[in-house]
Amino acid sequence: MSERAKADSPSTVLPLRERNRLRTRREMLDAALEVFTESGYGSATVESIAARVGASKVTLYSYFPQGREELFRELYEEINTQLVEQAVRIHEVEGEFRSRVRALTEALMEVAQRPLVGRFYSIDDPALDEALDPVRGHASGVFADYITADLAAAQKTKSVSTKASPRVVATLLVGAMRSALRDVADGSVSPTEILDSMDALVANL
Fold it and tell me: Distance from CA of residue 168 to its chain's centroid?
């Protein structure tokens, strides 16, 4: 369970001090996302993020000792976790290869459409590499694993005609999803166009 869920869940009884700590931490994460969206990573300084929540730089470092790198890494991993949880739910119910690829694509497009999160999760900025490298690819790896297994199963039942490597196909499909994420996040393509195109793509496998 995420810190936000812990703080908001009525079934989770936490001491007041702990609830306040989680709330402040959440406010700092949200402020980092807002400042990033408005100004970009280069201008998203510890000082500007702390000021957004009315805190000092020292206070922010007490919550995030590694500064803005830790803030953005945690934000990115939160989205990864949400996507992984959705992928697990998709594969907990009966389904076949094509419908599951569409469902995974829909999950990513939902992230892309979120005003602040979509731009952040689709960012390709070398300045962020050091901060995000430890968490980049977590959700994509899970997506690729599920697609690989589903395609391999579909090949065994001959519900698809392709004899291509399931792992290679999965890697290409996830790469297409990530590229589509950027296009939807910047408004150049609609989610419906992406989903229709993905349906057409997998229908020919």
Answer: 22
Q: What is the pLDDT of residues 89-118, one digit of tens each?
A: 999 988 899 999 999 999 999 999 998 899
Q: Say how far apart CA 92 and CA 125 lie, in whole Å.
A: 35
The amino acid present at 64, given as its one-letter code, is: F
CB 140, CB 178: distance < 8 Å: yes
CA-based radius of gyration for the chain = 19
| Separation of alpha carbons 109 and 101, rounded Å | 12
Q: What is the pLDDT of residues 161-193, one digit of tens each?
A: 999 999 999 999 999 999 999 999 999 999 999
For the full predicted model, state whether its pTM sits above 0.90. Answer: no
Query: How many degrees, rounded to 5, is the angle at CA 142 between CA 68 and CA 97?
Result: 145
Name the nearest CA neighbour of 172 among 149, 140, 199.
140
Dist CA 151 CA 55 (whole Å): 51
Percent of the chain whose predicted confidence (pLDDT) is above 70: 94
Distance CA(14)–CA(19), nearest Å, equals: 6
Domain locations in the chain as residue ranges: 1-65, 73-205
- Can you tell me the mean pLDDT for 30-46? 87
The verdict on domain 73-205 having CATH code 3.40.1280.10 is: no
- CB atoms under 10 Å from CB of 161, counted, come to 10
Using pLDDT thresholds of 50, 70 and 90, give the confidence band for residue 12.
low
Structure tokens at 203: 């229908």
